[in-house]
Amino acid sequence: MDIAIRSIQPLFFATPVDTGGLGLDPPRIGDILAAFGIVNGLFQMFFAPLHTHLGTKIIYMSGVASGVPIIIALKVMDTLARTRGLAMIVWLLVAGQLALAINTNLAFTCIVMFIAAAAPSQMRPMGFHR
After folding, report:
1. Tens digits of residue pLDDT in 88-118
2. Helices 47-54 and 88-118 sit at what angle, rounded to 10 degrees?
3. Which of 30, 52, 60, 110 has the smallest number of CB atoms closer than 10 Å to its CB?
């Protein structure tokens, strides 16, 4: 889901307002995505304490669940941009959408942890039952 959102979001930012986007110019889109990348990278440092406190399943489920408001925000931003222009509320929704996207990135790490935990070990090979 995160990859789909990462693909659609720059297109949404660049699409003119009258056809359903925000009509931003490429340098501004680049600034937004660069800021997201920096904040996302910094936030990843907090994954270990967050994982210790909440656990893999809760972080994964919240990451997947974050996809719903991210997609809904696209339509809300479109409606607000058509009626109010690029008002402060639209920029707050962009920031909120990017904050939720950080949570979806944490789900990637959890997927890797689930796969590693499910892999057979030397002590318990697949297909061997006592």
Report:
1. 999 999 999 999 999 998 888 898 888 888 8
2. 70
3. 52
